Amino acid sequence: MDPIIAPSVLAADFSNLEKEAKMLNQSVADWYHIDVMDGVFVPNISFGMPVIKSLKKHATKPFDVHLMIVQPERYIKDFKAVGADILTVHYEASNHLHRTLQAIKDEDMKAGVALNPHTSVDLLENTLEDIDLVCIMSVNPGFGGQTFIDGTYRKVEKLRKMIDAAGCNTLIEIDGGVTSANARKLIDAGAHALVAGSFVFRSDNPIETISKLKNC
Ligand code: DX5
Ligand code: ZN
Questions:
Q1: Three-state DSSP class for residue 184
Q2: From the CB of 175, is ligand 1 less than 6 Å away?
Q3: Residue 113 pLDDT more than 90?
Q4: pLDDT value at position 216?
Q5: How far is the CA of 22 from the centre of ligand 2 (A)?
């Protein structure tokens, strides 16, 4: 199966989001990856609901919203209202992860859990069947354009074994430093979805770059 490709809008031209949306709509990208940062959970602030709502007007593909915020459970309904289709919270930011996943599903969204590079996939043993998507961070969250952490492959392999053993349909997504140099290896290790920011938006031909990732 071809990988799911989710270009990260964090690397897009914010002064012309309509143009960027047209490009993504036209490309073989599957989802829009949307990074929300609060300056507390991560050292950076990105954008919030008004920007997502405006982008949604021009987008024809699902919104994969990655919350890098503390107490993400406070904003579930708000992100649904502005167009989130998949809502991912960080394991490290969730005291009551099981309840939060349920609350996301109650709003008719897919529920995702993101893991920082230092967080073991073993910690998902008791919730795996309730998770639609696990986002394995392959950089420390907060910024685009960082270098891929090699230890990611081992985490993907381990998580894929856990998913297969449990017989569930959880998707594995990789986020951070993805390029055509590591895409194939990530899919072979068991990943289903690849997020790519700088590699897509800093390239000369983003549409072609997205196809390259899709056909890695
Ligand atoms: C990092 C974000 C990523 C980021 C990826 O905190 O979660 O989604 O946009 O950007 P690249 O692909 O440039 O590493
Ligand atoms: Zn992200």
A1: helix
A2: yes
A3: yes
A4: 96
A5: 21
